[in-house]
């Protein structure tokens, strides 16, 4: 379980997070929605321990990661896996090397075991025979799948997804959702997803939280959020240009 | 003066002073960040795993792949030095000293400086671009999330590789240069084999050779440090990478000349 | 396999670089692994103007060693000469600072004497001739014309 308590962060005097409170339950899929530039990525970077807050705390399985030394933080971060918006595959390595990378660097596994596991993972994402391709030789959807495989191979307890399906066609989008579901179902993994895609949010989430101007303004099950009486949430869900959020 | 300062800082002289102040603060801040980067690099040297294989790969990239250009530049530097030296020395009837002029010039100055500039232009710019692209495409963030220290994984092998490789490259540069000078002196200018080699060998003392190698080590550190720093702190997309690469090569080259002056004054 | 090849290439490169470095140090830097095969004698000069450590020591124009340290001793220049073993120098020899060419580099030229006594390690050459200043020569020449 991850508890975020009154998290605040400013950059150059501009408050990006103004006291975020959120509980992420174990085994559930929690989705954070909100406008671009609303602090979602900054919040995510705090959760994965890359940024330190100005105040507030993030409690992961009973330990406050914002007060930890870098050394202690490493132990907690080993529980995390992340899929990046643009996959962030290592472009100097082949698909296979990308998937095998963490096992080679962080575990004491034998090379033969590593290759077997990576091959298994490739089969699961439906990319057998592509192991020697480089990231710039495969499509965006494939890169996302490889990114997913690269994160899952270390069997993380918490998976973070930064816009997992942005820019993909609907079929690829659904295969990614299926992969997320099956992968997390058999590892009892907690998913934290950032997304703009309302259809996706409603389909995959157990809990939805809306981040607006540095605060969580509403959270609940997808059904509760759909019935929200917060006008900002309603406008965001319908995508209407008329409402409390004015672009111009 | 950029527009943004016109509105912010009042008028006339005050505005100008404010501009100078903000530029100075910017420079100081950059220097502080570079020193911090250096300290972090020092901290990673002894951290396990040592990643010796990554260092070997970097030595291949920085050293082996620069070998051709180093040999090419070294031979032409030696040749032009022989030619220029010949016409200067002939005025005094001291052509016999040509070997000394070539070997001293190469071993003390031209070898380390030109060699480091060539490696900086070839491998240094590539370091900045590689690290910069990894930064903007979140690959460095990915390493961090995987609990692999990006500095240790990416930067440390490059700096250590450069420090190990530069003295080797510059020794090769010197030897190639001296023998290219020999080819011009003996082949074209009609100086005897003996007088060239004798002058070349007798002019140098061990301090010249060791001083040249000290310079090589220092320059190797400077160029890899600056280039890695610029790549690691790169922002704002493709334009950011190209700016960082340009800045890195210019800054490394200027620093090499500045440090060369001070090293020469200490070593002589 | 690919990485193995890289390692071999890097190994070859390092070997090449080290050979170049050693060649520079031994052959040009005059360092020696051969230092054992020399003995040292000293000589005092009124002036060594322009003589450098590492300069040649010769007899009849043939190199027989090199100049070691140059120090000041009782307002005289005390020069250490590293002479190759096997070259015998009589104790009444004369050491002179000479110039190769008009403005060439300075060397120590030794004119052997006829004594039976041979210099050993740590001995000194008593008779010396200091370097000739070109300025002096030129002014002598100019003023003698008048």
Kindly describe this structure.
The complex is a heterotrimer of chains A (248), B (268) and C (146). In chain A, the strands form 2 sheets. Chain A has a 6-stranded mixed sheet with strand order 6-7-8-3-9-10, sandwiched between helices. In chain A, strand 1 and strand 2 form a beta hairpin. The mean pLDDT of chain A is 79. In chain A, helix 3 runs parallel beside helix 5 and helix 5 runs parallel beside helix 6. In chain A, 37% of the residues lie in helices and 24% in strands. Chain B is mainly α. Helix content of chain B is 85%, strand content 0%. The two termini of chain B are 43 Å apart. Chain C folds into 2 domains: 34 residues; 105 residues, no CATH class. Helix content of chain C is 27%, strand content 34%. The longest helix of chain C is centred in the N-terminal third of the chain and has 27 residues. Chain C is elongated and about 75 Å long. Chains B and C meet through helix 3, helix 5, helix 7, helix 8 and helix 9 of B and helix 1 of C.
| Integer average pLDDT of chain A | 79
What is the structural class of chain A? alpha/beta
Q: Can you tell me the CATH topology of the largest domain in chain A?
A: Rossmann fold
Largest interface: B-C, 38 and 33 residues
* Percentage of residues in DSSP E strands of chain A: 15-25%
Low-confidence stretches of chain A: none
Note the overall shape of chain C: elongated
In this structure, how is the largest beta sheet of chain A organized?
6 strands, mixed
The figure for the number of domains of chain A is 2
**First-residue to last-residue Cα separation of chain A:** 40 Å
Q: Distance N terminus to C terminus of chain C?
A: 84 Å
């Amino acid at each position: 379980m991850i508890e975020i308590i009154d998290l605040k962060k400013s950059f150059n005097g501009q408050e990006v997070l103004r006291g975020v409170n959120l509980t992420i339950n174990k085994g559930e899929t929690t989705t954070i929605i909100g406008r671009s530039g609303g602090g979602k990525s900054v919040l995510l970077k705090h959760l994965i321990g890359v940024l330190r807050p100005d105040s507030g705390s993030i409690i992961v399985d009973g330990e406050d990661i914002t007060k930890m030394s870098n050394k202690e933080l490493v132990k907690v971060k080993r529980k995390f896996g992340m899929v990046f918006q643009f996959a962030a595959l290592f472009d100097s390595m082949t698909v296979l090397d990308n998937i095998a990378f963490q096992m080679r660097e962080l575990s004491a596994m034998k090379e033969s075991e590593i290759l077997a596991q990576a091959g298994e993972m490739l089969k699961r994402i439906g990319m057998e025979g592509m192991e020697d391709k480089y990231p710039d030789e495969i499509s965006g959807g494939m890169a996302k799948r490889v990114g997913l495989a690269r994160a899952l191979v270390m069997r993380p307890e918490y998976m973070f997804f930064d816009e997992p399906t942005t820019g993909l066609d609907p079929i690829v989008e659904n295969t990614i959702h299926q992969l997320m579901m099956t992968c997390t179902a058999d590892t009892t993994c907690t998913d934290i997803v950032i997304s703009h895609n309302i259809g996706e949010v409603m389909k995959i989430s157990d809990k939805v939280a809306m981040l607006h101007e540095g605060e969580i303004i509403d959270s609940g099950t997808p059904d509760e959020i759909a019935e929200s009486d917060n006008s900002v949430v309603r406008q965001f869900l319908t995508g209407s240009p008329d409402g409390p959020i004015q672009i111009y | 003066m950029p527009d943004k300062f016109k509105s912010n800082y009042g008028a006339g002289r005050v505005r100008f002073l404010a501009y100078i102040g903000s530029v100075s603060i910017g420079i100081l801040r950059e220097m502080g960040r570079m020193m911090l980067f250096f300290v972090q690099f020092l901290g990673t040297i002894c951290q396990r795993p040592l990643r010796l294989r990554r260092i070997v790969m970097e030595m291949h990239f920085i050293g082996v792949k620069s070998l051709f250009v180093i040999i090419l530049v070294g031979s032409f530097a030696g040749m032009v030095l022989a030619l220029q030296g010949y016409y200067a020395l002939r005025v005094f009837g001291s052509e016999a000293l040509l070997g000394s002029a070539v070997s001293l010039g190469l071993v003390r100055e031209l070898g380390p400086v030109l060699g480091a500039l060539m490696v900086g232009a070839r491998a240094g710019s590539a370091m900045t671009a590689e690290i910069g692209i990894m930064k903007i495409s979140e690959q460095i963030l990915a390493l961090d999330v995987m609990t692999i220290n990006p500095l240790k994984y990416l930067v440390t092998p490059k700096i250590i590789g450069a420090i190990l490789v530069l003295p080797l490259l510059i020794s090769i540069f010197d030897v190639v240069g001296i023998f290219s000078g020999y080819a011009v002196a003996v082949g074209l200018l009609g100086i005897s084999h003996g007088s060239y080699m004798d002058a070349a060998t007798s002019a140098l003392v061990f301090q010249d050779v060791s001083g040249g190698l000290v310079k090589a080590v220092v320059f190797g550190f400077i160029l890899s440090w600056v280039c890695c720093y610029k790549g690691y702190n790169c922002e704002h997309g493709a334009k950011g990478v190209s700016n960082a690469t340009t800045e890195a090569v210019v800054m490394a080259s200027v620093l090499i000349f500045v440090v060369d002056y001070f090293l020469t004054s200490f070593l002589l | 396999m690919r990485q193995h090849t890289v390692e071999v290439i890097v190994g070859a490169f390092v070997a090449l670089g080290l050979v170049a470095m050693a060649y520079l140090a031994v052959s040009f830097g005059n360092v020696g692994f051969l230092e054992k095969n020399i003995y040292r004698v000293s000589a005092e000069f009124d002036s060594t103007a322009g003589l450098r450590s590492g300069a040649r020591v010769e007899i009849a124009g043939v190199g027989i060693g090199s100049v070691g340290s140059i120090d000041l001793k009782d307002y005289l220049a005390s020069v250490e000469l590293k002479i190759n073993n096997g070259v015998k120098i009589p104790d009444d020899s004369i050491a002179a600072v000479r110039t190769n060419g008009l403005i060439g580099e300075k060397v120590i030229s030794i004119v052997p004497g006829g004594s039976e006594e041979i210099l050993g390690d740590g001995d000194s050459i008593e008779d010396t001739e200091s370097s000739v200043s070109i300025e002096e020569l030129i002014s002598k020449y100019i003023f003698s014309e008048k």
